[in-house]
Amino acid sequence: MKMALRTELSEWAPGRVRCLGLCSLQTLRLALSVVLSCCCSPLHNFLTYLCSYRTQFLQTNRNSGSLQDHTAMLARIQTDSVVEMLRKRYLNLHFEIVAMSTTGDKILDTALSKIGEKSLFTKELENALERNEVDLVVHSLKDLPTSLPPGFTIGAICKRENPHDAVVFHPKNYGKTLNSLPEKSVIGTSSLRRAAQLKRRFPQLEFKDIRGNLNTRLKKLDEKEDFSAIILAAAGLRRMGWENRIGQILNPEDCLYAVGQGALAVEVRARDEEILDMVSALHDGETVLCCIAERAFMRHLEGGCSVPVAVSSMLKDSQLYLTGAVYSLDGSDSLKDTMQTGVNYPQQNEEGPNDDTQYVGITAKNIPRHAQEAAENLGLELASLLLSKGAKRILSVARQLNDAR
């Protein structure tokens, strides 16, 4: 694996290090050990970022440090956004970025819904957390299961980017929409959720799996004639600076989004109070409450990437709104409903700091407990409503058909 080193060691060793180019992991470690041995001033309060192709994690080492990077652009951009937020709050901390890939990153020839592993993008990184090799993991929240392994918690959820799905068209189809594409046009998506809803909404189109990171999918779209368009998360495209490739944003009437989509989550050890207190400053209250409701809905349905479950949520005038739906694989059978609840969410937590209570894997001490409880109950009640109408049957059939494919 290759990686690039971006250094911020110059304030510790002025003039010695400005930048290191591409090198192997082993060479990088050796070079860093030499650099650090030459530093004249003591190193202090050092935090290290390690990132995978989908997720990133942070390591604390208060006596030494290094800065590394990897080749996945979106992972780096997401890492940098979290680093920048922490840097503004903790001016004396220094950060390191190191490559790590996960199971989900390595399996690119099989649809995620067929792999059968729940923690596709988290397991390896949580192992590093458990071994105290790292202290902080940054995920796309939609990649995190609704039940975390014992000893871990989501310590922060950053302000959400646009959670909706976007359509990127083949160059020959610029200016079109899904509805105006020719009949039998092939649309690429690796998501059962997207495919089920869009088959229902646009029955004249065909849908085909497409895997890979954003760069890979766009290359497959542009350089071949296999796809007329592909469906991607708008948040990823915008973080990459590729808004100009967005040909259509899918509104909730066309396609509800995935639980947690568009939000970045920071996972830590549940008992590491120092790190937990530090990252809690990154919590965005509105995003936290929406995502608690969404995750509670998903968990009560026992959903996941192997079944089509979709949501949409909004906090407005102290009212939290949640729409949730389940679909058959072909979209022909579905259940959808909307509920709301009052959360009376203030700008500041007037109750004072909460305890370490988790709500669907999230610890948010700076968000009022009553608001978190209301959000969780909203998700549970909406899921219970759909279950009472037959959601379990729809999801069970969808899971069986997906396993048989």
UniProtKB/TrEMBL annotation:
<comment type="similarity">
    <text>Belongs to the HMBS family.</text>
</comment>
<keyword id="KW-0627">Porphyrin biosynthesis</keyword>
<keyword id="KW-0597">Phosphoprotein</keyword>
<dbReference type="Pfam" id="PF01379">
    <property type="entry name" value="Porphobil_deam"/>
</dbReference>
<dbReference type="GO" id="GO:0006784">
    <property type="term" value="P:heme A biosynthetic process"/>
</dbReference>
<dbReference type="GO" id="GO:0004418">
    <property type="term" value="F:hydroxymethylbilane synthase activity"/>
</dbReference>
<dbReference type="GO" id="GO:0006782">
    <property type="term" value="P:protoporphyrinogen IX biosynthetic process"/>
</dbReference>
<keyword id="KW-0007">Acetylation</keyword>
<dbReference type="Pfam" id="PF03900">
    <property type="entry name" value="Porphobil_deamC"/>
</dbReference>
<dbReference type="InterPro" id="IPR036803">
    <property type="entry name" value="Porphobilinogen_deaminase_C_sf"/>
</dbReference>
<feature type="domain" description="Porphobilinogen deaminase N-terminal">
    <location>
        <begin position="73"/>
        <end position="276"/>
    </location>
</feature>
<dbReference type="InterPro" id="IPR022418">
    <property type="entry name" value="Porphobilinogen_deaminase_C"/>
</dbReference>
<dbReference type="InterPro" id="IPR000860">
    <property type="entry name" value="HemC"/>
</dbReference>
<comment type="function">
    <text>As part of the heme biosynthetic pathway, catalyzes the sequential polymerization of four molecules of porphobilinogen to form hydroxymethylbilane, also known as preuroporphyrinogen. Catalysis begins with the assembly of the dipyrromethane cofactor by the apoenzyme from two molecules of porphobilinogen or from preuroporphyrinogen. The covalently linked cofactor acts as a primer, around which the tetrapyrrole product is assembled. In the last step of catalysis, the product, preuroporphyrinogen, is released, leaving the cofactor bound to the holodeaminase intact.</text>
</comment>
<dbReference type="InterPro" id="IPR022417">
    <property type="entry name" value="Porphobilin_deaminase_N"/>
</dbReference>
<keyword id="KW-0808">Transferase</keyword>
<feature type="domain" description="Porphobilinogen deaminase C-terminal">
    <location>
        <begin position="289"/>
        <end position="342"/>
    </location>
</feature>
<protein>
    <recommendedName>
        <fullName>Porphobilinogen deaminase</fullName>
        <ecNumber>2.5.1.61</ecNumber>
    </recommendedName>
</protein>
<dbReference type="GO" id="GO:0006785">
    <property type="term" value="P:heme B biosynthetic process"/>
</dbReference>
<keyword id="KW-0963">Cytoplasm</keyword>
<dbReference type="GO" id="GO:0005829">
    <property type="term" value="C:cytosol"/>
</dbReference>
<comment type="pathway">
    <text>Porphyrin-containing compound metabolism; protoporphyrin-IX biosynthesis; coproporphyrinogen-III from 5-aminolevulinate: step 2/4.</text>
</comment>
<comment type="subunit">
    <text>Monomer.</text>
</comment>
<dbReference type="InterPro" id="IPR022419">
    <property type="entry name" value="Porphobilin_deaminase_cofac_BS"/>
</dbReference>
